[in-house]
Every structure is written in C-alpha cells, then in structure tokens.
Amino acid sequence: MDTLVYSVSRKERSSEKLLRGTMIALAVLFLIEGILFSTGFMLPCFLSAMAYFWYAHASRREWEYTMDRDSLRIERVSDRGRFVLHEIKLTDVELLCRPDDPAAAPFRKGGTVKIKKYDYTSYRDDVPYYTMIASEEGERIKLLLDLTPEAIARVRHRAPGRVKC
Fold first, then answer.
1. Distance between CA atoms of 164 and 155, rounded to whole angstroms?
2. Domain ranges of the chain
C-alpha cells in the first residue's frame, strides 16, 4: 500500500468575515481621523492594521493527514513549517463512525464518556466528517476528521470490526 496524503483547510466562518470587516473599518476610520483631526489617531490606525494582519495569519487553519500502512499522522501546516499533532497506530483505533451513529453517543457532548476532542475538519457542508476514537500514548482521544473512502478502507483493513461506516 502506498502512503495516502490528504490536505484539509478550514473554511472561513461568517463571524470571521464580520470581524475582519470591523478591523478594516476601524483602521480606515482612525486613518481619516488622524489626517483630519490629530496625528494621535495614527497609532490606533497602525495597531488596528497590525491586528488585522496578525488575525489573518493566525486564523488560517490547514492540516495534512498522512496515512501509511500502519499509522495515521496529522500535521498542522503553517508558514513556519509543519508540526506533528498526532501519530496514531491504526491498530489503536477503537471506533470510526459518523458523528450521528449510535456507537458515538457515549462520546458526544453530554455523553457518559469524557475524553479530549480535537477538531480537524474543514467545516464544509459538502464534505462528510467522521468521529475517530483512538488511543495515543495511553490516553483516549476523540478526533473529528474529513476522511476519504480510501482512508476509511485502510482503517477497516487494519482495525476490522471497529469501523461502523
């Protein structure tokens, strides 16, 4: 089996668009006030512009799933490089299913089992996402992932009986 690499980038939410628009409007307002009234408004203009550029850089989310024969590696991709977030052996997968499946009910919010959740989905409506419960370094974690049918087949091959989709 070859290595399967899948890149996921998060869709921008409408609240982020509103926040960006507000930051731009404030920067322009402070610039106009700085030109017309006092140069003391130039500092808030500069700070608003810097906040906009910092937020634009920090709000970009992109992940890369790399699945080889025995493991799944999730990396965060940024301008500063790649950071490995999780490395999970496929034999350590306890459950892989759709989030509305009854097998995932104990792990949902308000369910009977409390475990740490990591969301690595794209938030796109046309892309289905899956819930994966796995053990990593002795700790159970819940991962929300956008997986392809080929990736699901690989997990099914390595962890038979634990894939419910």
1. 11
2. 10-58
Q: What share of the chain is helix, strand, coil (3-state, %, to 5)?
A: 40, 35, 30
Residue type present at position 15: S
**pLDDT digit string (tens) for 51-92?**
888 877 777 789 999 999 889 999 999 878 889 999 999 999
Question: What are phi and psi for residue 28, nearest 5 degrees?
Answer: -65, -40
Considering all CA atoms of the chain, what is the largest pairwise distance in Å, rounded to the nearest integer? 71
127 φ, ψ to 5°? -110, 115
Cβ count within 10 A of residue 145: 22
What number of residues does the chain have? 165
CA distance 48 to 33: 13
Measured between alpha carbons, how far is 34 from 28 in angstroms, rounded to an integer? 10
- Structure confidence by residue, pLDDT tens digits, 6-38: 888 887 777 778 888 888 888 888 888 888 888
27, two tokens: 């920067």
Strand 116-120 with 62-67, pairing: unpaired
CA–CA distance from 98 to each of 110, 134, 141, 143, 146 (Å)? Answer: 17, 15, 16, 11, 10
Where are the alpha helices (H) located in 79-140, listed in sequence order?
none
What is the rounded distance in angstroms from the CA atom of residue 106 to the CA atom of residue 116?
13
